[in-house]
Each structure stands twice: as C-alpha cells, then as structure tokens.
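[step 3/7] inverse_fold.run input=structure_tokens len=457
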C-alpha cells in the first residue's frame, strides 16, 4: 500500500466530489417540492461491445463500452476469473493508469487464488484487481488480490489507497447455519483490506463487526467508516477507528438511532430531516442474539439501545459531503429507498422512494458522480435489469439495460439469457469520463463512456 500525499489527494478528491450544498440540498428540495421525474429510457438501443462485437448492453446514442474480465477468462497471474462480479471501486491512479478492486460474491468450497492470498482454503470468494488506461481508453490486466473469503458482496474504497471488502455472511467453521451446510476452516462475517499493490492482509478487521455486511463508505475528512447490513431487519453502523488509516488497531462500532423513529422501513417522508444519534455496540464479534441462531448478534445489541431498523441496506457511498445508501426493499411499495446521512449536522434524509416497478425496482449498489448525481444499480426478479441515474434535479433516468443473450461459442462456452443479471459495482473514474460497472451473472466488467452531462450525472 502506498501512502504518498499525491495518492491521498487523488482519493480524497475522488471520494469527496462536489460540496454538500450543491447536490444534497438540490436533491431534497426538488424531490420534496416537485416529486421525482422519470425517463424510462425507451430510446435505448443495442450497442456493440468494442471488445467482442456483441450487443451486450442497450444504451443511449453517443455511448460506447468495452467488456473485460469475463468469468472464465485467464487473468494476468494465470488464475481463471471467477464468477459473481459484485462491488467495485477505483483505489489508485498513477498517471493515466487506474487500479480498481472487484469483489467476487461466492460461497464456494475451495479458494480460487494462490495460498499466499488465501484466508480460508475452503472458501470460494475474494477479490481481483484490474487496471485501465484512461488515455488509451483500454483495459490492461487483472490479477488475484484476495481469496478464501465468503460471499464478498460490496465494500468501499478508502482515502488512503485500498479497498475494504465485505463478507455478506456470518458462517463459521464447518457445520450448518440456518439450513446451509458448509465446510469452512475459519469464521466469516468480516471486512478485509485489499491494497492497490502488494499483498493483502489476511487478518480480518474484526472490530468493524461480524454481521451480514454489504457496503461501506469512508468519510475522507475524519476517517469514520459507515457500514450497511443486508438483512430484512438491518442496522446502519459507523466505525470510529482508534488510529486513522490503521484499522487493525481497532475502534468503536456504533449503530444509528433516529430520534423518535425505531423503524424507517415504512412511514418515511421526503424533505424531513431526521435527527440522528449513535449507540455503542459492546461486542462487535457476537454472531447471534443470545439463545438464538439468527446472525443478528450485532443488530440486536444496537436495537436494545433504541437503534433504528431499516430493510436490506445495500449500496453505500460518500460524496457531496454526505453518505448515500440504498434500502433495497424499503418504502410502502417495498421497492427501495435512497437515503443520505450528513455527518456535518448528524441528520438523515430520504432522497428517493420508488412507488412502481417501472420506475425503480430494488436499488442495490450505488455511486456518486464527480459531477453530482447518483448511479443506482438494480437487482430485482425482473428481465431485463436496468442501470439508473438520479440527477441533482431529482430526475431519474434509465441509462443502460442488460441485453446479454449468448449463444454457445460466442465467449467461454457461455450460453443463455442473462438479461436478469444484476448490475453491481458502479464507480466513476476520477475525471468522470468512464463508468465502470459489473453484471453479476454471468460475470462481466464494463467500462462505459459517453455524454454523461446530458443525463445529469
């Protein structure tokens, strides 16, 4: 890991994006006063992939893309690219060369990577690093960066040049849990730190808690980490490190408590500023509620102290001076909410809430554009699945549609209709020209470029 001032400056600027007053207030004002305007992307057309020539995505005119890192492709270290492409972020820039880290959400029974990068030899998940040349507009290479973990769903980039990869599970050593049989050698449910270069530490950051992790976001101003939990009854957490940038030295885990609101899965109103405070989690390593096998050991501790319940918290990203996060099945329709938390004044606001499958169904990962506005990845039981942009003015537009339908022999013997594969791992290059994003199944990474300004992101 490199901690040069230039590296930190790059990452801080990439994470911070526009000032809080620019985007945060505009989202809230426009959404509450006028309601969300919606463009379903009816004019999106199949566009050929510049790598394979296949029409894998439907996009607006003026956009183009390149696929890379398909499941089954050989990486530069000789390891075969595993499946389950999920969370992803840019963690380094050297000149025109960007390094990204990509999660692989796999249970598995065997590590896909070398022993030196393997935490648990009987676990199938992990991470791969990828490089992209901004000047040439081309993918360069990829390699294994962490292996032997379980169901690495999302995570988030740090301001000091690394990726924090989250396990979306609380499975322990071999046995069964809630009907799931497994043969692991170690406990799981942790966060791991993966550098842009060099060897990842195989020691989990246990102080960040053992729960069904989804994503996290780091405030570059004070190093506080915000974490989401992907359960139907979930908490929103923050981690106060004992030493900034050295997470192995521990810290204090807390759960959000909204004054007067113990449950925000329904009944939330746009334009309302909910006052927030935090309650301590005394035992962040506790897997279960005492006397139960439920994986809610951390959540139940916070709930006992008045912590607020959300429904399936997923994507989480710092930008515009606030932390944005998705609640996948929140809201009266159960179709998803987008929230923002302001560390500056300790308030929570509802940015958006879906009322129809046609508008937005189950937002998962999200990212903040360097220009302002959000990209929302859709994960629902629908075909085809869509990628959306929510602009500063509260306009929701469909920006891409999964069009992956493969015949045997077109690539790596993959065959079938994959248009129901979820979008994941969206993140922009620091200059805002390229959007990097994954399709979880079959497992493909894309670099998309075009007139983003026209979409308001």
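[step 3/7] decode complete -> sequence:
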């Amino acid at each position: 890991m490199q901690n040069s001032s230039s590296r930190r400056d790059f990452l801080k600027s990439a994470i911070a994006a526009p000032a809080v007053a620019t985007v945060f207030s505009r989202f809230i004002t426009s959404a509450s006063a006028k309601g969300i305007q919606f463009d379903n992307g009816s004019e999106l057309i199949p566009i050929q992939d510049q790598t394979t020539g296949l029409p894998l995505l439907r996009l607006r005119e003026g956009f183009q893309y390149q696929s890379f890192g398909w499941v089954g492709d050989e990486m530069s270290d000789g390891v075969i690219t595993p499946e389950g492409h999920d969370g992803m972020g840019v963690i380094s820039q050297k000149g025109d060369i960007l390094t990204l880290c990509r999660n692989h959400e796999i249970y598995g029974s065997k590590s896909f990577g070398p022993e030196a990068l393997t935490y648990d030899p009987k676990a199938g998940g992990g991470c791969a690093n990828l490089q992209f040349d901004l000047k040439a507009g081309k993918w360069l290479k990829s390699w294994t960066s962490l292996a032997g973990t379980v169901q690495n769903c999302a995570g988030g980039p740090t301001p000091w040049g690394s990726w924090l990869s989250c396990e979306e599970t609380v499975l322990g050593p071999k046995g069964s849990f809630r009907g799931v049989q497994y043969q692991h050698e170690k406990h799981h449910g942790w966060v791991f730190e993966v550098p842009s270069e060099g060897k990842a530490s195989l020691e989990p950051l246990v102080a960040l808690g053992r729960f069904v992790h989804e994503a996290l976001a780091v405030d570059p101003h004070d190093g506080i980490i915000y974490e989401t939990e992907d359960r139907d009854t979930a908490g929103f957490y923050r981690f106060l490190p004992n030493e900034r940038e050295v997470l192995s030295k521990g810290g204090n885990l807390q759960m959000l408590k909204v004054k007067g609101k113990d449950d925000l899965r329904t009944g939330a109103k746009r334009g309302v500023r909910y006052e927030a405070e935090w309650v301590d989690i005394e035992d962040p390593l506790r897997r279960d509620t005492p006397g139960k096998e439920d994986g809610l050991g951390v959540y139940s501790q916070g709930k006992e102290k008045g912590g607020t319940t959300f429904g399936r918290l997923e994507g989480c990203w710092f930008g515009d001076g606030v932390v944005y996060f998705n609640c996948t099945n929140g809201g009266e329709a159960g179709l998803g909410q987008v929230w923002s938390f302001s560390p500056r004044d300790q308030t929570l606001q509802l940015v958006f809430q879906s009322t129809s499958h046609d508008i937005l169904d189950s937002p998962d990962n999200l990212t903040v554009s360097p220009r302002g506005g959000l990209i929302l990845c859709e994960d629902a039981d629908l075909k085809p699945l869509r990628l959306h942009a929510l602009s500063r003015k509260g306009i929701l537009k469909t920006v891409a549609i999964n069009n992956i339908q493969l015949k045997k022999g077109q690539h790596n013997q993959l065959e079938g209709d994959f248009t129901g594969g979820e979008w994941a791992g969206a993140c922009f290059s620091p200059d805002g020209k390229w959007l990097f994003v994954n399709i979880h199944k079959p497992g493909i990474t894309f670099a998309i470029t075009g007139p983003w300004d026209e979409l308001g992101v």
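[step 4/7] annotate
The chain has three helices and 31 strands.
The two ends are 31 Å apart (CA to CA).
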